[in-house]
Amino acid sequence: MKSSINNIDVVPVVSSWLSLFILSLVTFTASAENWDRFRGPNGAGQSDAAGIPSKWEPANFLWKRPLPNIGHSSPVIWGNRLFITSADAKTGTQIASAFDAQTGAPVWEKHFDAGTYHMNSLNSYASSTPAVDANHVYLLWLQNGRVTLVALTHDGNEAWRREIGAFQETHGFGKSPIVVDDLVCVANDSQADSSVVAVDCKT
Question: CB–CB of 149/165 below 8 Å?
Fold first, then answer.
């Protein structure tokens, strides 16, 4: 029986405007289920893991770690790696972080220049949830009015980078990529020319 949850089993929580924490529920990391995109497998927001706690309380947390900066993205998990983004609220610099999903130990952290832009005060410069497959983690961000898609290996090395197109929106950016077979797909709809873009996951 599937357990329906409001977000996912591993949820970023803003504890103050300066710090973001990942709180990991015991049952999810023990089950080794991949959580590969925004709202998990097929975007359904459900997990097959049994016994997911119904209360958000410290007894149900496996670990808690601070992130380097602020972000509204959700984490993704592949195997024993958890990936999540945050961004510098002053410069827009994108920060991709990887953690050990079982222990919360930091694995690596990468920074990417991006820049600032106007957005709603409820948004952040890291509102795009990554996607992940067996080979890469895929990140999206906005820079100078253009959308950038980057693929990193699970060890944090950049595999490739591609500009997806223009983006214009008064409330800011928050598009999340998905992986379909051997393609990473982005629905880049905005007040600029909109498009749906699919690129080869490997190249």
Answer: no
Query: What confidence score (pLDDT) does residue 1 get?
Result: 38
Closest CA to 19 of 82, 81, 93, 86: 86
Residue 76 one-letter amino acid:
V
Average pLDDT over residues 109-120: 87
Contact 125, 174 (CB under 8 A): no
Q: Is the backbone of residue 39 left (phi > 0), alpha (psi -120 to 50) or beta?
A: left
| Higher pLDDT pick, 180 / 1 | 180
- Exposure letters 171-193 (e unless 16+ CB within 10 A, then b): ebbbbbbbbeeeebbbebebeee
Sheet with strand 131-132: strands edge to edge? 131-132, 136-143, 146-153, 158-166
* Residue listed under structure tokens 């051997």: 182
Tokens of 29: 């990391």
3-state secondary structure of 109: strand
Q: What's residue 22's pLDDT?
A: 55
For residue 44, the model assigns a pLDDT of 84
Q: What stretches of the chain show up as alpha helix (H) in DSSP?
A: 26-31
